[in-house]
Amino acid sequence: MSVPHAAPGATSPAEPETGKTSGLKKIVAASMVGTVVEWYEFFLYATAASLIFGTYFFPNAGTELDGIIAAFLTYAVGFIARPLGGIVFGQIGDRLGRKHTLQVTIILVGVATFLMGCLPGFNAIGYWAPALLVVLRFIQGFAVGGEWGGAVLLVAEHSPDRSRGFWSSWPQAAVPVGNLLATLVLLGMSWILPADQFLGWGWRVAFWVSAIVVIIGYYIRTHVSEAPIFLEARAQVEADKAAGYGVLEVVKKYPRGIFGAMGLRFAENILYYIIVSFTIVYLKTVHEYDTSQLLLALLVAHAIHFVVIPQAGRLSDRFGRRPVYLAGAVLGALWAFFAFPMFDTLNPLIIIAAVSIGLCFHALMYAGQPAIMAEMFPTRMRYSGVSLGYQVTSIIAGSLAPIIATALLQEFSSWVPVAVYVAIACAITAVAVITLRETKGISLLEVDQADAEKHGLAAVKAGA
Question: How much is the pLDDT for 301?
Fold first, then answer.
């Protein structure tokens, strides 16, 4: 991969020389490996909630859909915990650094996920089973809440201004890799074991495997360095008492940036969980579609998603953040109206196509998020700003999306209300995109200098 040269007057401490491209690739790899680990575990729960947890932890819920809704409610607990993790780790990350924060988050989520695989079911310990599941889910979500901001900023703050969208999209591409691995492990276990053994104990193996990946991810993250622009911002905060940092500071000084980030996140988050979680529910409950075929469809779609995300990030560098993101919102609004009729054909290839197309539309929004959100906030409070905007939205978007969609399906026995729900979400995000200014190619140093001038702080140096 080649790194484009900076435009005249658009240099920053994060702008690597050609000889430093390999160093940037190492940063990208470190961020991606950790993100793969954390999202492998997070999405493993999503798939298990759709296929297993409804009957294993909530056998007395009533109908099959009632059990699935109960499992998704525990799934939502992780989303509720994520903003708390974003606040806590955002504060730590803005003060102490991105690197050490990411080392803590990967251990926390790994321990919680491993213990989930050890939990006995409702028939063994009664209501203690779902209670312990909720506690571990909260810890998992808390850790993931601090993961995303650190991972993407570690790359964004090292990236060249003219190709920040491309480079910082790679941690985003790690998300489908984590999801792909989780699906692959579950798919393998469902093929190897009879259905009763898979539901009884086979699913646990996928949770236990996380321990191996956590060790690898932690090791890699110990060998990365902080971005020069962050080190300079930290020095500024230490030298200038007026240069605050963290959650309270960003809420006070950049509320518009937080709401803008929330608007960007809204439809993207809902669309994703409709595609990867509710699709399973729809095909399994309405059509009694084979579990292995469902997992195979997701496996192919996640692989395509991984390939498309960096290319969408490259498009945001070439054509701008806004047009690419807006295209994703508009196309996402249309997706459900043709995807569900494709699901109803029960043709495996058509189902794979429907899921894959949806994830391609999602990539147009998801790929550019790190660059756009990084460019909204100055370095001294960037971790807190992006984490807050990104994670708070998860409570009202992704956490509720499978629950709302399943409830709509149960109430109306039709996919049409679900499609309308997705379209409304995309319309909200489209409005948010239109109201934002274009930041393609902007220097993060310029963002810091504008912040210093606006709030009467000491001038930011041009390098560290």
Answer: 92
The residue with greater pLDDT, 289 or 44, is: 289
Closest CA to 49 of 242, 256, 280: 280
Beta carbons of 145 and 82 less than 8 angstroms apart: yes
**Which value, to the nearest 10 degrees, does the dihedral of the CA atoms of residues 140, 142, 146, 148 take?**
50
Q: Which of 192, 26, 210, 179 is nearest to 107 (CA)?
A: 210
Q: What is the pLDDT of residues 35-52, one digit of tens each?
A: 787 778 767 777 777 667
- Give, to the nearest 10 degrees, the angle between helix 382-396 and helix 64-96: 170
What are the C-alpha distances in Å from 163 to residues 50, 145, 247? 38, 26, 28
Tell me, yes or no, whether 8 lies in a domain: no
H helix and E strand count, the chain: 23, 0
Res 464: pLDDT: 42
Are 177 and 399 in contact, with CB atoms under 8 Å apart?
no
What is d(CA 97, CA 363) in angstroms, rounded to the nearest whole number?
28
Q: Which amino acid is at 58?
A: F
User: For residue 199, what is the domain's CATH number?
Assistant: 1.20.1250.20
State the Cα–Cα distance between residues 157 and 140, nearest whole angstrom. Answer: 26
Distance between CA atoms of residues 215 and 33, nearest Å: 11
Inter-residue contact 24 to 16 (CB < 8 Å): yes
- Residue ranges of alpha helices (H) inside 117-246 are 122-125, 128-156, 164-167, 170-192, 195-197, 203-208, 210-221, 228-239
Is residue 14 within 8 A of residue 159, CB to CB? The reply is yes
SS3 (DSSP) at 288: coil
Domain membership flag for residue 187: yes
347 inside domain = yes
pLDDT at 3 over 60: no
Q: What is the pLDDT of residues 354-372, one digit of tens each?
A: 999 999 999 999 999 999 9
Report the alpha-carbon distance of residue 198 to residue 56 in Å, rounded.
12
Answer yes or no: is 252 within a domain. yes
Taking the C-alpha atoms of residue 406 and residue 388, their distance in angstroms, rounded to an integer, is 28
DSSP string of 395-439?
HHTTTTHHHHHHHHHHHHSSSHHHHHHHHHHHHHHHHHHHHSPP-
User: Among positive and negative, which fits the CA dihedral 284, 287, 293, 297?
Assistant: negative
Cβ proximity of 133 and 57 under 8 Å: yes
Show the domain range for 320: 21-454
The tokens describing 147, both together, are 């993961």
**294: closest CA among 191, 399, 393?**
191
* Nearest C-alpha neighbor of 327 from the set 375, 268, 374: 268
